[in-house]
Amino acid sequence: MPSFIDIGANLCDPVYNGIYRGSQAHPDDFDQVLERAKSIGMNKIIITGGSLEESAKAIDISNRNPMLFATVGCHPTRSSEVYSQKHLTPESYYNKLLETIELGGSKVVAVGECGLDYDRTEFADIETQKKCFEAQFKIAQKSGLPLFLHNRNTGGDFVEMIKKNRTMFSTGVVHSFTSNLEEMQQCLDLDLYIGINGCSLKTEENLLVAKAIPEDRIMIETDCPYCDIKRTHASYSYLHNINKDEVLSGNKKTNEISSSQEEWWLKPVQKAKNKWEINSMVKGRNEPCTIPQVLRVLAKIKNIDEESLAKIIYENTLKVFFPSEAK
């Protein structure tokens, strides 16, 4: 069985404690989520920090289990909060992010999630996002940590800011990558890695981009509880070896795949949250245990043996986030 590192898991989300929109729908099953991850070969999970408060929570959670680690930073859609604190100046906010990194010690493996997101400017305007992103290059420089990067529909601004500040950080990964071939190559030219999850594999264009990424520059993730591979995605047919047209027309369903196949990458049984069972995933809530599906799609489109590709990806991830363990 291959070994995995999930570079982006939103395990601070209360859904992993059974809470949905403020209401308790089922018992806390965080430990079961981790057990399911271990069962498919997961060795490490990096919990994403998207704000000062969430970064501290990510560290707190990671301190409870040796397989968990954290990032510390401010997501572009949260950047407005940096400039709207009543008792905290922007400079103090960034200083506290740096203090959080120092307090987290070896549990903190990256600065981020940081970057730009022009699809959701209703949460933070472009100039505010840019100011927040710029400040986090300085945090990376002071901490010596790599960057965990976010880029959505930025029309070249993301790449330009990376170019401008490239000497301030060692390396980084553009996670949940959904950009085109040109921007992918620009990121590679800047010596960055590319993070792939289910959202990176939605369309045929996405698949062409993923196929073109050099193996020694790929990392994989789930971005859970989001970004699972859905039946409507172009990547879905690579999981079950069935005709894509049948998938899109709804004539084939996951539960028709026989459990006797004993495929290690298949999801466990899923139940609606109001019908929760301890050994089942919650329907609509992605988990780290689904990461083998991302590997399978990449291996299929690249025509590479899954275990061989998994070893390369694992080593890529160690090199960036856990350099003392890299070969």
UniProtKB/TrEMBL annotation:
GO MF annotation: an example: 3'-5'-DNA exonuclease activity
The protein, known as: Uncharacterized protein
Region forming the signal peptide: none
Source taxon at top rank: Eukaryota
CDD domains, per database record: TatD_DNAse (cd01310)
Keywords, ordered alphabetically: Hydrolase, Metal-binding, Nuclease
A single GO cellular-component term on record: cytosol
